[in-house]
Design goal:
With 244 residues, the chain is an alpha/beta fold. The chain is built from nine helices and seven strands. The protein has a domain of 169 residues: Vaccinia Virus protein VP39 (Rossmann fold).
């Protein structure tokens, strides 16, 4: 569980205000227009949640981390609740939109969270979530994509937020694809050296299931790329909107 001190540094390590602004702008284009009630699941520090506030809306953030909520409460006064995404403290059919940004990829079983989100949605409501987070950095035909493609393909069946899996679960819950958007992780492009260091430190999910020989080989290929300290293009994150 993230404490207050960790939460204070959380945003800066994940793109800060520029990424939050891009995410909120993309979410905004998928939200219902006019008066509505929005639930932001796993709102974290509230850095995106506060950008969804409008005079005609009620916006509530929920998170299980007291450290995160201590900051979110400062950004969205009176608008945050402590709760578990698999057991939301909200009535059924009570909100017009549910937002889930950068959560599903962290979960061993996103299906239970999607089921809870569907439960609290009113008929005609919309669930907006990020998907395919691991693929965000890999622009087609980039040198980073070419170096990593084999390992990422092997890992793909394990990806919790793979869009095909999310859409399949959504269909079982009566939710259909309504729209989608992409937005940039401004300033988050990584250099080959940073990728290699992340792999060696065990921070890259699609390498944690690889054999030592595979990890050694992909690190060798990263080390062979030119411009070792030049950041590659910013990641492009994907949002989908699912309508009840």
């Amino acid at each position: 569980m993230i404490d207050y001190d960790e939460a204070r540094d959380y945003d800066a390590s994940r793109g800060g205000e520029p990424r939050a602004r891009a995410a909120a702008d993309a979410v905004e284009l998928l939200l219902p227009q006019g008066p509505c009630v929005i639930l932001d699941i796993a709102c974290g520090t509230g850095i995106v949640t506060r950008r969804l506030l409008r005079s005609e809306r009620a916006v509530v953030g929920v998170d299980r981390s007291p450290g995160m909520l201590s900051l979110a409460g400062q950004r969205v006064p009176g608008g945050v609740v402590r709760g578990d995404a698999t057991r939301l403290p909200f009535v059924s059919n009570g909100v017009d939109a549910v937002v889930i940004v950068w959560l599903l990829h962290l979960l061993p079983d996103p299906a239970s969270v999607l089921a809870e989100a569907a439960r609290v949605l009113r008929p005609g409501g919309v669930l907006i979530t990020t998907v395919d987070k691991d693929d965000a950095y890999f622009v087609e035909d980039s040198d980073i994509a070419q170096v990593t493609v084999d390992l990422r393909r092997q890992y793909a069946p394990r990806v919790p937020d793979h869009s095909a899996r999310v859409l399949s679960w959504a269909a079982e819950l009566g939710l259909g694809l309504e729209g989608q958007m992409v937005f940039p992780g401004t300033g988050q492009g990584r250099s080959p050296r940073r990728w290699r260091e992340g792999i060696e430190a065990g921070h890259i999910p699609w390498c944690t299931h690889a054999s030592p020989d595979q990890v050694t080989e992909v690190c060798r290929r990263f080390a062979a790329l030119p411009n070792q300290d030049a950041a590659r293009p910013d990641p492009l994150y994907r949002l989908i909107a699912l309508k009840a």
